[in-house]
Amino acid sequence: MNGCILCGGLRWRSVLCEGPWAYLRCRRCGLVFLHPQPTSEFLHQHYQDYLPDDQEGVESWRRLMIEVWNRSGRLIQQLFPIPGRLLDVGCGYGFFLERMALCGWQVKGIEISAKARRYAREVLRLEVSEKALPRPDWRDGSFDVVTLFYVIEHLADPLSTLRETHRLLRPGGLLLLRWPHTTPLARMLKPWADHLKLYQAPSHLFDFSPATLGMMLRRSGFQAIRTTVSGWTRPKARGALLAGTFFGAVGEQLARLSGDRLLLPGVSKTTLAWA
After folding, report:
1. Which of 219, 210, 151 is nearest to 8 (CA)?
2. Strands 143-149 and 85-89
3. Is residue 3 assigned to a domain?
4. Is residue 13 in some structural domain?
5. 138 lies in some domain
6. Closest by alpha carbon to 263, among 221, 224, 226, 216?
7. Facing residues of 206 across strands?
8. Average of per-residue pLDDT values in the chain
């Protein structure tokens, strides 16, 4: 096995297993990663079936994410009162791009799922590319804002992707990341791990903490970094919805009252990083 992609560490401990897949934690920096790492060919095919293409499934996905998109959109608009150029990496069906376009932003998306990309192009009439980062055909400083919603944990080389987003952002531009913080939950619920499949193996290749993600962002050239709790997803299952709403609201309140010093483990985080 190669060393940790973040620190080069060669020692790790097991967090848990999901079927044939193991999640390991680097003893040096704390980054959690999937072992073995799937091939790029496997991942490309895997993500062709990751998102549904029936109307009910598409609408369910929109409802799941709508609050997160709305919170993030309002935050971006507060920071950038004059609309600019925005890229959403892993844009799915394009609902966040549609929202920002209606607010006057010039938007582009990247999506490797053919089903989702087709919906974004044909139904929402958005400019969405199938080519993943890096994009040498795009000039430095092409965008004011780049967003990744629940994407960074799926990337085989997140460090290279973050470096490319830094190149694509103009000086003073913003990277907004939304990401799951699964490991604290996985440790607490380890006896039920096989049933719950919290990491969604092999979909999640990495699991970050505020510390490890901050380290990766600084190595990518970002300086001003803020991680907070802002909004929560809305799953269809009643139990998951109630739990997510409760812990999301508690986490958001703790973050607000503490100035982001208290970030509830296990709830999804939003990270802002400035180029």
Report:
1. 219
2. parallel
3. no
4. no
5. yes
6. 226
7. 33
8. 93
Instruction: Tell me the two tokens of residue 137.
Output: 């055909």
Q: Tell me how far apart the alpha carbons of residues 135 and 43 are, in angstroms, rounded to a whole number.
A: 19
Q: Residue 236 — pLDDT band, cuts 50, 70, 90?
A: confident
Calpha distance 190→187 (Å, rounded): 5
Overall residue count recorded for the chain in this entry: 275
Give pLDDT tens digits for 66-119: 999 999 999 999 999 999 999 999 999 999 999 999 999 999 999 999 999 999
Q: Is residue 124 part of a domain?
A: yes
Q: Which residue has the tokens 């009439």?
A: 125
Question: What six digits make up the tokens of 114?
Answer: 């053919």
Boundaries of domain holding 165: 21-274
pLDDT at 189 over 90: no
Q: What is the model's pLDDT at position 247?
A: 86
Domains of the chain: total: 1
- pLDDT of res. 226: 97
Q: Report the CATH number at residue 250.
A: 3.40.50.150
